[in-house]
Design brief:
There is one protein chain. With 195 residues, the chain is of the alpha+beta class. The chain has two domains: 45 residues; 148 residues, no CATH class. It has two helices and twelve strands; from the N terminus they run H-E-E-E-E-E-E-E-E-E-E-E-E-H. Strands 1, 2, 3, 4, 5, 6, 7, 8, 9, 10, 11 and 12 form a twelve-stranded antiparallel beta sheet that branches. Strand 8 and strand 9 form a beta hairpin.
């Protein structure tokens, strides 16, 4: 009887947490020139102006329009190859000017708003809106600049984050729900063996 109650509670917990998740927009690219982020209006470029950098639309190349129909609250990217993100160039916190490793969006209800950077590894970085009103909507303009201290980027994989998570280092609710259900299951299995 207790196991049936536990399984019902676990199913309801999973349904609650998984129902709130939205699908993020994934993108990737490679090579050493320029290309597109799954859309003709989202341009990316490596090493624009001769520097060791990556940007959308390109470092020093003005802005580009966000072309997705769903709002985004974050931008994550990981580079393959030997590129090392220049931590000294990262703009931490929501302040202007956006002339370093940064993500800045323009327009919308909150006006111009840089997103906070989180360096996740030598070749991984995440940018997050720190208020839900700082989101980016369809046709709003943005740019992202990333500078490398050494090495060469061979390619990248990234995503537009479509739910409000101001800190990428905190697990998502669905992950925490699964963790809780797993702990509960281990408790009941251990208790049953001891009986």
């Amino acid at each position: 009887m207790r196991i049936n109650t536990f399984l019902t509670a676990a199913a309801l917990t999973l349904a609650t947490f998984s129902g709130t998740a939205k699908a993020d927009f994934l993108f990737s690219g490679g090579g050493s020139g320029s290309g597109f982020l799954n859309s003709p209006s989202e341009i990316w470029r490596y090493n624009l102006g001769g520097g060791n950098n990556w940007g959308s639309p390109g470092v020093g190349a003005d802005v580009t329009a966000y072309s997705r129909n769903q709002q985004a609250y974050g931008f994550d990217i990981t580079f393959s190859g030997s590129a090392v993100i220049d931590v000294a160039s990262v703009m931490f916190g929501n302040t202007f000017p956006c002339n370093s490793t940064s993500f800045c969006k323009f327009g919308g209800p909150a006006g111009n708003s840089p997103w906070t950077a989180f360096v996740l590894g030598t070749s991984s970085i995440a940018f997050r809106a720190q208020s839900a009103s700082f989101r980016i909507d369809n046709n709003e303009e943005y740019f992202v600049n990333i500078f490398f201290s050494s090495g060469t980027a061979q390619g990248f994989e990234g995503r537009w984050v479509t739910d409000f998570r101001p800190d990428p280092t905190v697990p998502e609710p669905a992950t925490m729900g699964l963790f809780g259900v797993s702990l509960g299951a281990l408790y009941f299995v251990g208790r049953r063996k001891n009986s």
